[in-house]
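Researcher: Here's a chain I'd like modeled. Treat it as a single chain, no partners, no ligands.
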Amino acid sequence: MSIQLAESDFQILGCFPVISQLRPHLEQAKFVGQVRYQMKEGYQLVFLQVEEQAMAVAGFRILTCLASGKFLYIDDLVVDELKQSHGYGKQLFQWLIQYAKDHNCEHLSLDSGVQRFAAHRFYLMQRLNITSHHFSIKL
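Model: Modeled as a single isolated chain. Structure tokens:
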């Protein structure tokens, strides 16, 4: 088992089967290009791999804002639905926390869809606090 940042197109594409479980609207043919575009804006993709296959994937970025200072924001965090309850999510989450600390972040945050009850249980077990409501409007 290893955890590493996806840097090559091959590694990025290898994350698609897992991340598409969280983001089913994504198209495999456009995935690498979309990730590469987001990387120009600071997005990074990290994956936990077992026997050359991604089991858990997270997309994140480091940001700074007036309200929070420097922080690591998790855009995407998903464990392969067939490999859940193996501790992969917890290991990847702990890696993200250490990465944030290593990069002098003051905190880590994420948004989670209101319907994702299992994810909410996981986040609460990882000692995350519910600190705000997220509002949006489709334009």
